[in-house]
Write a structure and sequence with these properties.
89 residues; alpha+beta; two-stranded antiparallel ribbon; 2 helices; 7% strand
């Protein structure tokens, strides 16, 4: 997925011109047979809208170019998959 951080509110610091890696871990212990972490695309996009509103102070996240690029990278896939950063033990 293509995640680029929007501008932080109240700061004159330009947004990074490179994608960032998002991390995700389901609650509880993760077992190897569970496979790579994933979340439903609709839940992921809803959570990102809430983050854009509360953290970045963006009143209409769906109109934000960073959100639109993120949504486009998720496409119409049912799930967003995340690569494990550490071996699952």
């Amino acid at each position: 997925m293509n995640y680029r951080q929007p501008l932080l509110p109240g700061r004159n610091i330009p947004a990074l011109d490179r994608p960032l890696h998002l991390l995700y871990k389901p609650f509880g212990r993760v077992y190897p047979e569970m496979g790579q972490p994933k979340i439903e695309s609709s839940e992921f996009l809803q959570a990102m809208q809430e983050i854009y509103e509360s953290i970045y102070d963006i009143p209409n996240p769906k109109e934000c170019t960073a959100y639109q690029a993120l949504k486009a990278s998720v496409k119409d896939d049912e799930f967003v998959s995340f690569k494990p950063t550490l071996p699952i033990v």
